[in-house]
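[Q] Does anyone have a clean structure-token version of this?
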Amino acid sequence: MSTAVFQSLMARLVIDPAWRRSVRDGGLPDDADLTGLERRRLNAIAASGGVDTNQTLHKGFRLGKIKALLPMTSTLLKGEALHAALTAFWAQYPPKTFYFLPEAIEFCDFLLARPSTCPYLHEVAAFERAHLELQRARTDEPPVQTVRFVHNPSQLLGPLAQGRQPVSVERRPCTAVGVCDPQGQAQWTLQA
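[A] Here you go.
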């Protein structure tokens, strides 16, 4: 067993609560390529209360990434709705990277694939996802992003950008087209 594999399994105890519970309750799988000492150490770590603290810190880190990169989606969902969406997302998508942007894009995809009782959620998540795509590090130019709106984007996004819930947003179907300017800043125009 290499040190990297041992460390990977140790990290999994923190980032995957369900796997940690299975290890704590039943031990490591028999097919885990571990020495006896490594197996005893990982079983002890799984049983340690300190892992609970690390899991809480890790969850806070992930929440911070989402709130920082998807402020309008977070404002729209806030409270219990945001908690429920993140809990479902995290259960299906364990973290793959410590980079902020890919997880935020995955969360948008997750929201866009699910039905929502919030009439604006898909528009806002699609807009923030497209905006992140324009910011994603690339060796070439980012592709043009288009977002279809059913509701007036100014009335919808304006309050959310200020951390407030939108009220009485009129229907105004249009398409927002996003490109990066020469300085790498996202520029959006509306087409009726």
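[Q] Thanks! Anything notable?
[A] Residues 144 and 179 are 5 Å apart (CA to CA).
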